[in-house]
Design goal:
alpha+beta; Aminopeptidase
């Protein structure tokens, strides 16, 4: 796999992956053309030095995506932490080890940025994803909560 920062032209493929599951299809709008809001927020992510929207390529095709957020934090005497979000593998490519390669890449990026903690969330209904993260050494040490504002 080749990892790189996403470019605007990658957005249709990225949004298609985000929309391609039972939860994503309820909240994403994968249509042609894509809603402008995706491009607006891509620009915000791209201009923020603490954000990386990553694509994973196989044979020149996008096979996966994830967003890495590097968070300055006062905990642990002042340190960085890495938040991994929106991890997706293209349909038909799951179960082949590519997700592990992606998470390992993210962890290495965290080390490069001197992160002390790597954290992520996964919807409780994504049982396979939870097992996957546990196999990689992640532990459910905290109870997460969300409040949707609209």
């Amino acid at each position: 796999m080749i990892f790189r920062k996403a470019v605007r032209e990658d957005l249709p493929c990225i949004i298609e992956m985000l929309a391609n599951d039972f939860l994503g299809m309820q909240r994403e709008k994968y249509e042609t053309p894509l809603p402008q809001s995706y491009y607006d927020f891509f620009d915000k992510i791209s201009s923020d030095s603490n954000q990386e929207l990553i694509t994973a390529e196989l044979d020149g095709e996008i096979a996966g995506t994830m967003q890495l957020t590097f968070i300055p934090n006062l905990n642990y005497g002042g340190s960085m932490r890495l938040l991994i979000e929106s991890v997706r593998i293209k349909e038909g490519l799951t179960g082949k080890g590519y997700g592990s390669l992606m998470i390992n890449y993210a962890i290495e990026r965290g080390k490069e940025k001197n992160c002390r903690i790597v954290q992520l969330t996964s919807d409780k209904r994504r049982k396979d994803a939870l097992r996957f993260y546990e196999k990689l050494g992640f532990k459910a040490t905290h109870e997460g909560m969300k409040l949707h504002l609209y």
